[in-house]
Amino acid sequence: MRRARTNTPLQALALLNDVQFVEAAREFGARIMRQGGNSVNEKLAFAFRSTLARVPDQAERQILEQIYTKQLARYLANKQAAADLIQHGEKPVPNDLAVPQLATWSTVANVLLNLDETITRD
Fold this sequence. Notes:
This protein is an all-alpha fold. Helices cover 70% and strands 0% of the residues. It is built from 7 helices and no strands. It has helices spanning 9-17, 19-35, 40-52, 58-77, 79-86, 99-113, 116-119. The longest helix has 20 residues, at 58-77. The radius of gyration is 14 Å and the shape is globular. 26% of the residues are buried.
């Protein structure tokens, strides 16, 4: 079984916005925070390996670091946006994790889960 590559907007809308996918990204973000290590770099490497079963190259690591930094600044400045993001889904939101950080790691997780390399097989 193989999923064909596509660049249709409907796929992107579903994978990036559907409640089920946003909740899955939040749960993966919580896992990254709990199991990924102590530093941002360790967490990024853990997330990448967990998703793609390989180590990120230098360019991929830099892009993920930029996403992390930009999203953390965004969610620290707008805690309501962070709370709104992590509220999606049926599973209760973890109350032991900081909301801006969880929203940030959820966004990083969402990026990784939506890579073409993640959703298709070659």
